[in-house]
Design goal:
By secondary structure, this protein is mainly beta. The protein contains one helix and nine strands; from the N terminus they run αβββββββββ. The strands form two sheets. It has a five-stranded antiparallel sheet with strand order 1-2-9-4-7, with no helix packed on it. The chain is globular, with a radius of gyration of 13 Å.
Amino acid sequence: MSEPIDDIVALSPEVHKVLFENETIRLLEVSVKPGATVPMHTNPENVNYILAGGTLRLISEDGSVLDVQLAERQVIPAPVGRHAVENVGQSEVRTLCIELKRA
């Protein structure tokens, strides 16, 4: 049985761009326009530096939602667990995301 595609860049290349990658980390530029969505996925351990803030809605597999307000220059880890994302605000959310690769 094959595993589902869960790589965020493969799932949403219009939102996620690889800026750097080696065997231990991957740096992504993330741009989520108002109304844009990212399909259900699981993030590896990571940290995000917010370049431009806004409001993202995280939708869990069970359908529960959490709206997250992001502010410019904020540093946050991504949530643990599977979720989808929707930009429910009026501004484009832009981040730099550093993913730690699993050994």
